[in-house]
Amino acid sequence: MSTLSYAEIRDDLVVQHAQLVRYGLVVWTGGNVSARVPGEDRFLIKPSGVDYDVLSAAYMIVCDLDGTVVEGSHAPSSDTATHAYVYRNMPAVGGVVHTHSTYATAWAARGEAIPCVLTAMADEFGGEVPVGPFAIIGDDSIGRGIVDTLDAHRSRAVLMQNHGPFTIGKNARDAVKAAVMVEDVARTVHIARQLGEVIPIPQDRIDSLFDRYQNVYGQSPQGALK
Residue 223 has what pLDDT? Predict the structure, then answer.
């Protein structure tokens, strides 16, 4: 299997950041996508405070798994320590995304998990989207909360309390997909609850839906991240 070059990863990160804008998941310079370098203890991440409309491959910062900058002329994202902690402790993860998308962040502000009441949630997340603990940016506290929460769940998304969603994936595109999907289900379930009580999906049906989507759906088997 061929390994992506640094240039290919840089180019893909530009595309994936554009997807955050396309789907309305970010405002101003907030949010970030990172990607692990396959076979190396390195990852690439967006620089801090750079406008999305000027973001180019040359801006992407190379860091080691301690979050130390290895290559790049700009300061890395303020979430770099978080991404680094996830990569150090979840070897299967190849991409990490953080947004403040409106509906998912609203659930995070309530400290409430999104219940699994949609087949799309069972497919994509294998159950509810859980809430992680309150933590402050500046060290790896948020990363610890992400890992501790997702280790106990099949979900590839976590709502960090009072902060917003973080998602993981096999690569950057996969993590972006999870970010798009968590905002979509957060919005839909919120609207459903305005209409009345929502109907939980039985666990055995959730398990069946998740297995089918992860291993059968699509043009080739996708396979679950964990």
Answer: 58
Q: What is the rounded distance in angstroms from the CA atom of residue 188 to the CA atom of residue 166?
A: 19
Give Cα 38 distance to the centre of its chain.
Answer: 18
Q: Give the separation between CA 59 and CA 98, rounded to whole angstroms.
A: 18
Q: Which of 93, 168, 81, 94 is nearest to 130 (CA)?
A: 168
* pLDDT tens per residue across span 55-66: 999 999 999 999
The token pair that represents 14 in the structure block:
């530009």
- Say if strands 61-64 and 69-71 run parallel, antiparallel, or are unpaired: antiparallel
The model's pTM is 0.95
3-class DSSP assignment, residue 62: strand
Distance from C-alpha of 96 to C-alpha of 58, rounded to nearest angstrom: 20
Pairing of β 69-71 and β 164-169: unpaired
What residue has token string 């860091």?
Answer: 63
Neighbours of 20 (CB within 10 A): 23
Could you report the average pLDDT of every consecutive run of 10 residues in the chain (226 residues)?
84 98 98 97 98 97 98 96 98 98 98 98 98 94 98 97 98 98 98 98 98 83 61
Closest CA to 192 of 83, 103, 96: 103
DSSP string, 130-152: -EEPP--BTBSHHHHHHHHHHTT
Whole-number Å distance between alpha carbons of 15 and 18? 5
Separation between Cα atoms, residue 156 and residue 126, nearest integer Å: 9
Residue with token string 């948020």: 142
